[in-house]
Write a structure and sequence with these properties.
The protein is mostly beta strands and 773 residues long. It contains six helices and 47 strands.
Length: 773
């Protein structure tokens, strides 16, 4: 029997709780049903190694006269070994370097253009990435990201260090779901791997890309590859971006520059050493905010600092003092990174050692309904050592991991005449150790089992002072000293199976866990400690190729149980300070499915259709707010009564039943590409695509203004590829229909009538030139 259930978004039909498993089972049965007689006819023999079979098919296709007619095999290394996506049980999506350029993926927020179930926003220089609602509202270094971001095998621990790395990319891999075994801490929602181009011993691997567009865009990047000898090569890559802001006050601009030097020494087929040094600078005004609901009569990109927005704000009554947003926002971030990777074939296994060092210097200011200044220094040291082996019947990896970071800095918040002005110098640090292993064992030619585990121990330290002033910063009062130390232990595991129905069709089932690190927040006990959050995930899916590799149909269904998730929000702390705290929110459930159809019916035509259904719901989420300042207009959660806590009575707010923020129920992609092959040997390529997203919450107060509306976004590209394939010129229009995509915002906990939201790019257009030699 079906029930009508109020998800606080309006009524919708929902399955009875006991039937949720059948949603997954039904999806799997549909998947299996696709492997019919036409697929069986493709079997040419038993499959002893799926990746070898895929490689054999690719080689055969390459030697045939119509090799270009089939779909390409996509190789990923997310499992610490090379394998094709079609033979991997990971929920992974790969994005090639060419796709990064054509889609204009310059920042982490752009990933939502091509990855369903992913949403990303910015707070100052901090990136906030969510996959299926699992992520983190990172606004300072005291919180942890929920999606692990890795650059060339080295984790980027702080979210302010992510955006400056999107150049000279070989490919990107987006893993959905907890990755606790191989990626460890802060991978509760998934992982994003960015792999940049390595030096090559070939001469023709140098590139140059130039792009100009509206909003005064000028973007140039490229790389010079120099094979110095048969065993030593270097690659120097660079990136320079200058673009005006999308918002009316010039915010949401892009001003960055960087360079990366890589050196590869390969004295033999068994040994290679890769060394990387890079540095980046990010400047400009940084990200800005617009109001939800939209300013009447204005376009969606009118900033909160504009006269129109100010008049709109003051047309509403407000119980809390606010700061009129200024126009002096800025971002001044600098980064330096060094890493190396040693690979040594020992015969029985390959030894890989990856040391890394990352340095960041952050100085940001942004305005919403308050002014926020953040300045800190970040230093990170990592070391991963692992052994791995892969043959036809057994694949395994085992290793040790070390991580240490320090992030001393200061936060300053001007919250207006009612909520005062504060500064918070802080000194956090953390150390983490882990041992891990994972193996895939072939039980028969067609059936494999997967098992993995990771044990992590981490220690977090924090000290700082909460200062207040009543005279706009002239005299600060030492109001609250906070400090603490906490050790956390986490055990994560993975189990799974893979079964080859045919040489072209695979079924898989996995169960895995992941966690996000616990930590300390800027207040006193008992509210200063938040526990690690944990995710238990089940994935059931199938990967299929038909019609001589002209049709690909993949389906993944999933069920996640999410515990102790960390939410950061503006609140009053135990001493009565207006503070920004991280707390554990309780539990939630996430389930759904992803369907991906890719077909190339002719040599020159490619269609791609994909859809994802993400049903999310808090099953346990409540928090307290001082009754003296409680405003029913500041939350959509239920008032569950009053309790005495500390020095103030507290009102209990119950948010159970709401869907998770940053998790639209439905998202979809559709694209079409056609190649016009000219007599000269040149190619003109046309591409059109559209992306849809349901309405979604963008903050956790669940007020009407925090509900971002649904949208559809349309893009097009037209490119000319020269006969030599050495140069390409392309024109594009992105977001043709000027759709407003709201990606996040700053919670407004005390009743302000408008929500300061982040917004994606409006219509953009430009021309790109790509050279290769």
């Amino acid at each position: 029997m079906k029930q009508y259930q109020n998800d606080r978004n309006g009524f919708r039909i929902d399955s009875a709780p006991h039937s949720r498993l059948w949603v997954i089972v039904a999806a799997a049965l549909v998947c299996v049903g696709t492997t019919g007689e036409s697929a069986a006819q493709q079997i040419v023999g038993a499959v002893s190694d799926p990746n070898q079979a895929a490689a054999a098919r690719a080689a055969a296709a390459a030697s045939s006269s119509d090799a270009a007619a089939g779909l390409e095999e996509v190789v990923v290394t997310a499992n610490r070994r090379e394998e094709t996506i079609q033979k991997s049980s990971l929920a992974v999506q790969a994005i090639s370097g060419d796709e990064v350029l054509s889609a204009g993926l310059d920042q982490v927020t752009d990933l939502s253009k091509v990855v369903l179930g992913l949403q990303a926003a910015m707070q100052g220089g901090m990136s906030q990435v969510y996959i299926r609602g699992v992520g983190d509202f990172s606004a300072n270094p005291l919180a942890n990201p929920g999606v692990a971001f890795n650059l060339d095998g080295v984790v980027i621990g702080r979210p302010e260090s992510v955006n400056s790395n999107f150049y000279d990319i070989e490919r990107m891999e987006v893993l959905k779901g907890p990755q606790g075994t191989l990626y460890g801490r802060n991978a509760s929602g998934g992982a994003i791997n960015v792999l940049t181009n390595n030096p090559s011993f070939d001469d023709d691997k140098s590139t140059l890309n130039v792009e100009v567009g509206n909003y005064a865009l000028y973007h140039v990047d490229g790389a010079v590859n120099v094979p110095i000898s048969s065993t030593f090569a270097v690659r120097l890559a660079f990136n320079k971006v200058s673009r005006d802001g999308y918002l009316s006050d010039g915010t949401d601009d892009d001003q960055e520059q960087g360079a990366r030097l890589k050196a590869l020494w390969k004295p033999s087929d068994d040994v290679s050493l890769l060394v990387n040094i890079d540095g980046e600078q990010v400047g400009g005004k940084g990200n800005g905010f617009v109001y939800l609901p939209q300013v009447p009569g204005a376009n969606p990109w009118v900033a909160v600092s504009s006269p129109q927005s100010t008049a709109y704000l003051y047309s509403f009554p407000s119980d809390a003092g606010i700061v009129h947003p200024g126009t002096d926002s800025f971002i001044r971030d600098g980064f330096f990174n060094a890493s190396a990777q040693l690979d040594w074939n020992l015969g029985f296994a390959t030894l890989t050692v990856i040391p890394g060092y990352r340095y960041s210097n952050t100085d940001d200011r942004q305005y919403a309904n308050q002014r926020n200044d953040l300045a800190d220094i970040g230093k990170q040291e990592t070391l991963e050592t692992r052994l791995s082996h892969s043959d036809q019947t057994l694949k395994w990896v085992a290793g040790l991991y070390y991580f240490r970071e320090i992030n001393p800095g200061e936060i300053r918040v001007d919250s207006g005449p009612t909520l005062l002005y504060s500064k918070i110098p802080y000194d956090p640090s953390g150390t983490s150790y882990a041992a891990f292993g994972e193996l895939t064992k072939s039980i028969t030619d067609n059936f494999r089992l997967i098992a993995g585990a990771r044990e992590t121990t981490e220690k977090r330290l924090l000290s700082g002072i909460f200062y207040l002033t009543f005279d706009n910063g002239a005299t600060f009062i030492d109001h609250e000293n906070f400090s603490g130390a906490k050790t956390f232990n986490s055990f994560t595991w993975k189990l799974g199976s893979e079964y080859d129905l045919t040489a072209e069709n695979m079924l898989f089932l996995t169960a895995s866990t992941g966690f996000k690190a616990g930590g300390l927040t800027q207040t006193v006990a008992p509210d200063n400690v938040y526990q690690p959050e944990k995710v238990l995930a089940f994935e059931l899916g199938t990967r299929n190729r038909y019609l001589d590799d002209r049709l690909q149909f993949n389906v993944e269904s999933f069920y996640w149980s999410y515990k102790d998730q960390q939410e950061s929000r503006v609140a009053f702390d135990p001493l009565g300070n207006f503070n920004f705290l991280t707390v554990n929110a309780g539990s939630s459930q996430i389930y759904g499915a992803n369907v991906d159809l890719l077909t190339k019916p002719t040599r020159d035509d490619t269609f791609h259709l994909a859809a994802e259904y993400d049903h999310t719901k808090y099953t346990d989420f409540s928090y307290n707010t001082p009754t003296a300042v409680y405003n029913p207009a500041a939350t959509g959660c239920r008032d569950s009564g009053t309790v005495t806590g500390g020095f103030l009575p507290l009102t209990i707010l119950d948010c159970g039943g709401f869907s998770l923020p940053h998790a639209p129920l439905w998202t979809g992609l559709a694209s079409f590409t056609h190649d016009f092959n000219l007599a000269s040997g040149a190619t003109v390529q046309f591409n059109a695509s559209a992306r849809y997203s349901d309405a979604t919450w963008v903050a956790i107060e669940f007020t009407p203004q925090e509900r971002a509306p649904a949208f559809t976004m349309v893009n097009t590209n037209l490119s000319y590829v020269s006969p030599s394939r050495r140069w390409t010129v392309a024109g594009y229009v992105h977001n043709i229909n000027n759709a407003a995509e709201y990606t996040g915002g700053l919670q407004s906990s005390f009743g302000q009538p408008l929500f300061p939201a982040n917004i994606g790019a409006p219509r953009t257009y430009g021309v790109q030139l790509h050279l290769q030699w």
